[in-house]
Amino acid sequence: MRDVILDPTDYVGVSFWIISAAMLAATYFFFVERDRAHGKWKTSLTVAAMVTGIACLHYFYMRQVWVETGASPTVFRYVDWLLTVPLQIIEFFLILAAVTVVRASLFWRLLSASVIMLVAGYLGEVNADNAGLLWGMFVLGTSAWLYILYEIFVGEASRVNNASGSPAGQRAFKSLRLIVTFGWAIYPLGYVYGYAGEGDVAALNIAYNLADFVNKIAFGVAIWLAATSDEEMGQDA
Question: What residue ranges define each of the domains in the chain, with the CATH number in brackets?
Answer without folding.
Answer: 11-232 (1.20.1070.10)
